[in-house]
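Recap from last week: sequence in, structure out.
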Amino acid sequence: MSILKEIHVAVGVVKRNDTFFICKRSKEQHQGGLWEFPGGKVEPGESVFEALSRELSEEIGIQVHSSTPFMVIQHRYSDKNVRLDVHLVEDFEGEPLGAEGQECTWVSNEKLDEYDFPKANEEILKKLLKC
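Predicted structure tokens:
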């Protein structure tokens, strides 16, 4: 029996008014072609907020001033386990964009279910739909 690698990810639910900023994963990535809330791996020695700030700067070109913990999700895929530290990001500077060439868009809460997300994101979507 092999032990699956665990990936710790900082996820930013970037919100402005009643819309959320989402990006499409490139085909080459794990879960490629699906939509996601931006973020990335927490590196050794980094806090979740530091990782979130770094990743959102690199990935969508914004500077995060503060964030609010939203939820933590543990999800098992066939090839890895992921721990998603999800933060709500409403206090930021800059206009989000696909800084790495990825397709991105603002989506209203009621239209989020029209986009295909990875299974690990289902709990985020459920909680947002209740807000």
